[in-house]
Amino acid sequence: MDQIKSNRNDDPAILVEKTQAGDREAFREIVRLYQQKVFVLAYSFFRNREDALDIVQDTFLRLHEKIRMFEKGRNFQGWLLQIAKNLCVDYYRKNYSRRKELESEKNLDELSPAAPGDPAGQALDLKEPLSRCLERLAKQQRTIFVLKHFNELQYNEIAQVLNISVGTVKSLHYKAVQNLRKHLTPYLGVQG
């Protein structure tokens, strides 16, 4: 019985309805469920933890303001990530347009915990090289790869979030995977 109740508490449609009715706890649950996904999206844009955290905060403030505009039947996660993406673009234009691209020493180690059941295994061994290789991808390829593999979005959801065609998403994802393969080859061939 508790598991059924738990699943209902995680249902975005129910949480949105409750939030639209003024339920603060439901809004907190939405934040809990989606803050990491918003962070990963923002981090893929800026490669800077502080800027990504600013976007997370701004996204949920904007969500709180606009939650009543969400139309029942739409993909909530796609809608929320679209808000985050728009804020990323605005933030980038405002704060990065006159500066050279910032190089961050941070990497995806913070974003990708070890795979379940593999606490100290092979997944950890590739985190650092994967992070370095992801940084070498073009921004849009990196964003699509992160949305697909870290946020687990489908191609059509990524297309909606980035406002590009599904074909473009598939093409850029394919190129990202090919580029990552090429960049990761030296790391995969090394025997420890």
Structure, explained:
Helix 2 crosses helix 3, helix 5 crosses helix 9 and helix 7 crosses helix 10. The chain has two domains: 99 residues, RNA polymerase sigma factor, region 2, helix turn helix motif (Rna Polymerase Sigma Factor, Chain: A), CATH 1.10.1740.10; 82 residues, Winged helix-like DNA-binding domain superfamily/Winged helix DNA-binding domain (Arc Repressor Mutant, subunit A), CATH 1.10.10. The chain has 192 residues and is an all-alpha fold. It contains ten helices and no strands.
Provide the fold topology:
Blueprint: H1 2-9, H2 12-20, H3 24-46, H4 49-66, H5 76-95, H6 122-125, H7 127-136, H8 139-149, H9 155-162, H10 166-189
Helix pairs in contact: 2-3, 3-4, 3-5, 3-8, 4-5, 5-9, 7-10, 8-10, 9-10
Offer a few descriptive terms.
Rna Polymerase Sigma Factor, Chain: A, single chain, 2 domains, disordered N terminus, Arc Repressor Mutant, subunit A, mainly alpha, elongated, 192 residues, 70% helix
Distance between the termini: 48 Å
Q: Which CATH-level-2 architecture of the largest domain? A: Orthogonal Bundle
- The whole-number mean of residue pLDDT values reads 78
Secondary-structure-based class equals mainly alpha
**CATH C-level label of the largest domain:** Mainly Alpha
- Order of helices and strands, N to C? HHHHHHHHHH
Rg from Cα: 18 Å
